[in-house]
């Protein structure tokens, strides 16, 4: 499996304590956005014209009659959100606003203000008016607040009052129109109903004369006779009782017939009360008890036992004969009840037939009488409703719209609210600025923290190098920057699994990450520790180390690998006696694969024997294959990652390339940290500065002792972060 495809890019997650770090790093963006928003809000606030507001308060009720008892369902006063919302729409309707525009001549006045003197269309004026209106309910009441905004305080009050008055007149006119329309409809329906009553009365009179209905029968409300009320009730009661008795006896007979003969003697006593049967059962019980007593001492062949057994059979025969007689008697009784029931049913049916014939004869009269009563009842309802509506028109009623508070001109402008707008600008500016900063940070997938390195690359961080690091050969061993490289040196030494591992390649994913500076200064601190060190410039395409040493690059590594010069001829010395340098030399045209040669392997072996540590400066591993070749041939590889430069996936791929060729990546160097900007790394800069500042004031003896103590404690130095 290809290791380049096995490790997906890590998901960027922010820890809680990273938020303040992001704000500090992106403070320029935050500040710029904040100032832009605040200045824009302030400018707009000062440019906008001032406006005043005036409000009128009205009470709105449903249309309810003032006459008690006229309404069938009383309407309770109170807050009804659906009714209030409906009235909102009515107030803002074209019918109301067009009257307001006409009464106040707003089309002309606003045309002068906003259209250069040209009269506005009514529709345009109403649109402007709606935009300047604000309707609000007073919670849990039937009150509505009408608020109007205008640059003229007097105009705002005048418009608000006119809207309230127009709406009030509209509701009154609407109620009056609806009431008069209802009266006309009721009058027409009453006249129609009166005609129906007269026609129904004539039909009743004609049927009574035709059918010869007596006064007594005519006083009733249905064609029902006394026969149905008395005789039928009695006959039906007898029929029900007969059916119940028949069902009970027939059920008992059926149960006895289906009972086994041997079980009848136990079932019959509870089902039928028969003294003779009860006496036989008692005799049988006494004889059976006697047989049980004799069976205890005598055999079945004994005369006494035989006699008792014969008595039991005789009694059981009599019981069976008696049971058979009871069942036959029960059958006769059931048959007799069935005949009686049939006779009773025929009597009921006959009585009902006679009664129905009589009732059917007079039914048309009573049906006509019922129709007459219905049309008369509906006529009475219409007459009552008509009287109610006429009284409601003539008498005063409670106002459906009451102006509680009239609008008065405002004393101070309400728009724009300068303190509020500026405060909102400040809040929005901060929110947008911080949000944009976090968004930019989210899009930035470069390495920003030690956690990013360890989470993405799964490799330890050996050292953290600050910004603006120069040459330690020039700054000296007491430079604050030197301590960062001494920490790196210590961690590198303790990362070795074997003391024989002394060849180190320093690589990076891309150009400009500080790889050359790192290998130069790291070799310098090793040399300052009295260790024999050599730096080999393996960046054959863009060599720069010779410039730091101030030597020529005319001959070097390439000359030795091509066997043009001996090793002693290409190695250069430095101001430090323990630090040597091997330049890259001129790159020949036939240099393809020169680092992957047997001569290169031989060179590494020789240098490992001559020096305590051998450092190789390589080209970017993502650019050319030389770095991968070099990583496979040396003992250890250190990857340099510049702070906030390249995306994490690029650094991950660089690590994967090292591992793919079998390189031993022992850790990461996080380079070019802006200590002043990112307080996550303030620990390092603060420590270095304070330590060396105090050191410069101490004596030479104390300084030497302090350095010795620091060297002894190098093994305990760890990479730390402050969040």
CA(first)-CA(last) distance:
39 Å
Low-confidence stretches: 1-12, 65-77, 682-723
Radius of gyration: 59 Å
Report the average pLDDT across residues. Answer: 77
Shape: flat
The CATH architecture of the domain at 458-674 can be given as: 3-Layer(aba) Sandwich
The CATH class assignment of the domain at 458-674 is Alpha Beta
Largest sheet: 8 strands, mixed
Strand order of the largest sheet: 5-12-11-6-10-7-9-8
CATH topology of the domain at 458-674: Rossmann fold
Helix content: 55-70%
- CATH level-4 homologous superfamily of the domain at 458-674: P-loop containing nucleotide triphosphate hydrolases
Structural class: alpha/beta
Oligomer: single chain
Q: Quick one: how many beta strands?
A: 12
- In what range is the share of β-strand residues? 5-15%
Tally the helices: what do you get?
25
Secondary structure: elements and pairs:
Blueprint: H1 18-25, H2 27-47, E1 52-60, H3 81-91, H4 94-104, H5 106-114, H6 122-131, E2 133-137, E3 143-150, H7 153-211, H8 215-218, H9 226-257, H10 261-271, H11 275-295, H12 303-394, E4 401-405, H13 418-443, H14 450-457, E5 461-466, H15 472-475, H16 480-495, E6 503-508, H17 515-528, E7 533-537, H18 545-549, H19 557-561, H20 567-570, E8 572-573, E9 579-582, H21 598-610, E10 613-617, H22 626-633, E11 636-642, H23 648-660, E12 665-673, H24 682-697, H25 700-712
Parallel strand pairs: 5-12, 6-10, 6-11, 7-9, 7-10, 11-12
Antiparallel strand pairs: 1-3, 1-4, 2-3, 8-9
Helix pairs in contact: 2-13, 4-6, 4-7, 7-12, 9-12, 11-12, 14-23, 16-17, 16-24
């Amino acid at each position: 499996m290809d290791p380049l495809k096995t490790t997906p890019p890590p998901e960027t997650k922010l820890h809680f304590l990273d938020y303040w770090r992001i704000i500090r790093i992106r403070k320029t963006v935050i500040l710029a956005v904040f100032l832009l928003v605040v200045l824009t809000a302030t400018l707009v606030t000062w440019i906008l014209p001032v406006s005043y507001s005036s409000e009128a308060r009205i009470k709105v009720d449903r249309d309810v009659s003032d006459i008690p008892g006229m309404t069938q369902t009383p309407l309770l006063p109170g807050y009804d959100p659906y009714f209030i919302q409906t009235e909102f729409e009515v107030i803002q309707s074209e019918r109301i606003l067009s009257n307001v525009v006409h009464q106040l001549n707003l089309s002309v006045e606003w045309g002068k203000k906003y259209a250069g003197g040209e009269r506005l269309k009514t529709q345009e004026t109403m649109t402007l008016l709606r935009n300047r209106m604000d309707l609000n309910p007073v919670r849990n009441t039937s009150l509505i607040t009408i608020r109007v905004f205008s640059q003229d305080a007097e105009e705002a009050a005048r418009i608000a009052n006119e809207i309230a008055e127009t709406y009030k007149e509209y509701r009154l006119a609407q109620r009056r129109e609806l009431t008069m329309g209802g009266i006309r409809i009721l009058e027409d329906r009453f006249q129609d109903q009166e005609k129906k009553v007269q026609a129904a009365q004539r039909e009743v009179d004609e049927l009574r004369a035709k059918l010869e209905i007596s006064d007594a029968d005519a006083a009733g409300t249905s064609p029902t006779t006394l026969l149905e009320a008395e005789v039928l009730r009695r006959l039906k009661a007898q029929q029900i009782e007969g059916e119940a008795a028949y069902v009970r006896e027939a059920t008992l007979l059926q149960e006895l017939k289906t009972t086994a003969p041997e079980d009848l003697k136990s079932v019959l006593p509870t089902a039928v009360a028969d003294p003779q049967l009860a006496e036989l059962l008692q005799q049988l019980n006494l004889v059976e008890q006697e047989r049980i007593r004799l069976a205890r001492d005598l055999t079945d062949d004994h005369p006494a036992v035989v006699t008792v057994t014969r008595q039991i059979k005789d009694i059981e025969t009599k019981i069976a004969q008696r049971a058979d007689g009871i069942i036959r008697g029960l059958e006769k009784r059931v048959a007799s009840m069935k005949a009686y029931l049939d006779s009773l049913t025929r009597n009921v049916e006959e009585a009902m037939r006679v009664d129905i014939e009589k009732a059917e004869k007079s039914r048309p009269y009573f049906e006509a009488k019922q129709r007459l009563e219905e049309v008369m009842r509906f006529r009475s309802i219409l007459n009552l409703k008509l009287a109610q509506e006429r009284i409601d028109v003539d008498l005063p009623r409670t106002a459906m719209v009451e102006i509680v508070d009239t609008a008065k001109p405002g004393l101070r402008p309400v728009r724009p609210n300068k303190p509020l707008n500026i405060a909102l600008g400040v809040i929005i500016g901060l929110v947008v600025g911080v949000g944009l900063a976090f968004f930019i940070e989210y899009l930035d997938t470069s390495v920003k923290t030690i956690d990013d390195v360890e989470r993405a690359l799964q490799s330890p961080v050996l050292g953290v190098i600050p910004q603006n690091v120069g040459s330690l050969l020039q700054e000296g061993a007491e430079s604050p920057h030197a301590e960062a490289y001494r920490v790196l040196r210590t961690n590198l030494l303790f990362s070795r699994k074997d003391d024989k591992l002394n060849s180190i390649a320093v690589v990076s994913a891309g150009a400009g990450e500080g790889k050359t500076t790192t290998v130069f200064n790291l070799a310098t601190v090793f040399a300052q520790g009295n260790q024999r060190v050599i730096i080999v410039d393996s960046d054959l395409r863009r060599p720069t180390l010779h410039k730091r040493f101030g030597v020529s690059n005319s001959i070097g590594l390439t000359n030795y690998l091509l066997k043009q010069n001996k090793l002693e001829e290409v190695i250069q010395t430095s101001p430090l006696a323990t630090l040597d340098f091997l330049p890259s030399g001129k790159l020949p045209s036939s240099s393809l694969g020169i680092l992957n040669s047997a001569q290169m392997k031989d060179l590494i072996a020789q240098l490992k024997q001559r020096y305590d540590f051998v450092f190789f400066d390589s080209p970017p591993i993502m650019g050319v294959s030389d770095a991968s070749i070099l990583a496979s041939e040396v003992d250890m590889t250190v990857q340099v990652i510049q702070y906030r430069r390249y995306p994490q996936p690029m650094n991950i791929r660089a690590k994967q390339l090292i591992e793919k060729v079998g390189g031993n990546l022992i850790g990461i160097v996080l380079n070019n940290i802006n200590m002043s900007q990112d307080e996550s790394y303030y620990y390092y800069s603060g420590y270095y500065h304070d330590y060396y500042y105090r050191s410069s004031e101490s004596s030479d003896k104390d300084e030497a002792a302090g350095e010795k103590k620091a060297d002894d404690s190098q093994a305990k130095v760890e990479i730390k972060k402050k969040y």
